[in-house]
Design brief:
Elements: H1 4-13, H2 15-22, E1 36-37, H3 43-54, H4 62-73, E2 84-89, E3 92-98, H5 105-121, E4 124-135, E5 140-150, E6 167-175, E7 178-187, H6 200-208, H7 215-218
Antiparallel strand pairs: 1-4, 2-3, 3-7, 4-5, 5-6, 6-7
Helix pairs in contact: 4-6
Length: about 230
């Protein structure tokens, strides 16, 4: 059976791979912003987020983002509705969920936090949660980055480590203190000791596929706007 100690040794084998993709910056040149641990939510912010989740305000946008992704993937994405861009790199797939003025900054931050909670509920633990602020000539950019790793568990059929959806990163990027987009990516680990990762489409379905908001839920948007 797969033990916790064996799981840790497997993760050590891909440590260099992780550091290349998501490692914290250990050195920086003059004027270059570095990653710092992200600030924790205050008790008041945590209570407000819990109320937002209980009110299911997220149903106003999760389903529409999910639909927009598939429309974009099929080449039918238009100018109306929420905007999504596809991300494809060697070994990595993802999507940008762009902020829309109809959402409100507060609701968008709650969406980001909800997605992190849903990733953890899929059998993941958060390996890092950092933030960085960079000053440019005409604007400043703030990025919050979270890296999630699957909990070390074995696959009953193969005995290999179950990597679920692979490594998952979740970023929130803002410009001039206003939200810009949420970036969600997954990186399957290409090691024989891991099971094959589920697809990015499966990950999106687990995170975004929600019933549409009813009129009562739509009316709650304003309460969490700021």
């Amino acid at each position: 059976m797969f033990s916790a100690q064996f799981g840790l040794s497997i993760y050590a084998r891909v440590l260099h791979f992780l550091q290349q993709l998501f490692g914290r910056r250990t050195a920086a040149g003059p004027g270059t912003a570095t990653w710092q641990p992200a600030r924790h939510s205050t008790p008041q912010q945590a209570r407000k987020h819990a109320a937002w989740v209980a009110d299911k305000v997220y149903r106003n946008w999760l389903g529409p983002y999910y639909k927009a992704y598939h429309l974009r993937k099929g080449g039918a994405g238009g100018r109306r509705g929420l905007r999504v861009e596809l991300l494809r790199e060697p070994g990595r797939q993802g999507a940008l969920l762009y902020y829309d003025d109809s959402i409100g900054p507060g609701n968008f931050r709650h969406l980001y936090e909800l997605l992190s909670e849903r990733v953890a509920a899929l059998g993941y633990h958060r390996a890092c949660h950092d933030q960085r602020r960079r000053q440019h000539a005409q604007h400043h950019e703030t990025t919050y980055k979270q890296l999630f790793k699957p909990n070390p568990t074995d696959c009953a059929e193969s005995g290999r480590c179950n990597q679920r959806y692979g490594l998952i990163t979740l970023d929130l990027v803002g410009v001039n203190d206003q939200p810009f987009f949420i970036r969600l990516t997954h990186n399957p680990v290409q090691e024989s000791c891991f099971t094959q990762a589920h697809s990015f489409e499966d990950l999106l379905a687990a995170l975004l596929d929600e019933p549409a908001a009813d009129a009562e839920t739509e009316a709650r948007v304003a309460a969490y706007w700021a």
